TrEMBL record:
It comes from the Bacteria. GO terms for molecular function: ligase activity. Pathway: Cofactor biosynthesis; (R)-pantothenate biosynthesis; (R)-pantothenate from (R)-pantoate and beta-alanine: step 1/1. It comes from Aliiglaciecola litoralis. This is Pantothenate synthetase.
């Protein structure tokens, strides 16, 4: 595995692969890789000749009071894991090269609508930061395909919309969430949880699963059921940001006839913001 930090050598190697007719899969990450990330890499390897992974903790997607400084950075450990999976190139750009004109002056990409709701309402500017860095990384790596976890479901929808709106020439794959044995969605931010909080954390997914079951068994009083989930989480000591039932494609509130839905939730457990989601099909 080759580690590249500058854009010029990345472009050179990219050109060689193109001449050789190789297909390129890309997995953008912020590092501190867990099995969820490694699963994205496995999927990428199964679909393309070459796999590029990037590690870049993107300052543009963190709010002023968020965890940019504290975000776990474990480069040596990450490198070993990627090497073992047979990744071709690890791209580790520096912020000064990515945002060479400064964060204030940076041109940005914003997907309206989708970026302002749900997580976007609680984290203003977050999805603009995500869309901008992903667009820039796509321009640098020029992959044929890119892989994102469904854990960040709204992020995945924002990126798909950006690719459609800007006529980008690549395929986006969403990969199902990897979970710990007790159901907690894998996340780099789980490291922030104290032992007590870690014990409580699986309750969010457990309640989402129960809600899904009730919806699939025919109950349609979504807002009453959502309120109950919020109360349960609250009683368990979580500070709920949102629990929402949305249409899977638009992330808007579903009309009566819609059958493909997603339940999305975010809550603070101590200082840690947990997010999760589960897809529901009412077709059965
Ligand atoms: O999901 C992430 O880790 C980040 O939001 C991403 C897509 C790598 C952009 O910085």
């Amino acid at each position: 595995m080759q580690q590249i930090s500058d854009i010029t050598p990345l472009r050179e190697i990219r050109r060689k692969w193109q001449i050789q007719g190789k297909t390129i899969a890309f997995v953008p990450t912020m590092g501190n890789l867990h099995d969820g990330h490694l699963n994205l890499v496995r999927q990428a390897k199964s679909k393309a000749d070459i796999v590029v992974v990037s590690i870049f903790v993107n300052p543009l997607q963190f709010g002023p009071d968020e965890d940019l400084e504290a975000y776990p950075r474990t480069l040596e450990q990450d490198k070993a894991a990627l090497q073992a999976l047979g990744v071709d190139v690890l791209f580790t750009p520096h912020a000064s090269a990515i945002y060479s004109r400064g964060l204030e002056k940076q041109t940005f990409v914003e997907v309206p609508g989708l970026s302002y709701m749900i997580c976007g309402a609680s984290r203003p500017g977050h999805f603009r930061g995500v869309a901008t860095i992903v667009c820039k990384l796509f321009n640098m790596v020029q992959p044929n395909m890119a892989f994102f976890g469904e854990k960040d479901f709204q992020q995945l929808q924002v990126i798909k919309a950006m690719v459609t709106d800007l006529s980008m020439n690549l395929t986006i794959y969403g990969v199902p969430t990897m979970r710990e044995s007790d159901g907690l969605a894998m996340s780099s931010r789980n490291h922030y949880l104290t032992a007590k909080e870690r014990e409580k954390a699986p309750i969010m997914y457990a309640r989402l699963c129960e809600l899904k079951q009730k919806m699939e068994s025919g109950r349609r009083d979504f807002s009453l059921m959502v309120d109950q989930v919020k109360r349960d989480l609250d009683e368990a000591g979580l500070k709920v940001d949102y629990v929402e039932v949305r249409s899977i494609d638009t992330l808007l509130s579903p009309g009566h006839e819609e059958t493909e839905l997603v339940i999305l939730a975010a809550a603070f457990l101590g200082k840690t913001r947990l997010i999760d989601n589960i897809q529901v099909s009412l077709k059965a």
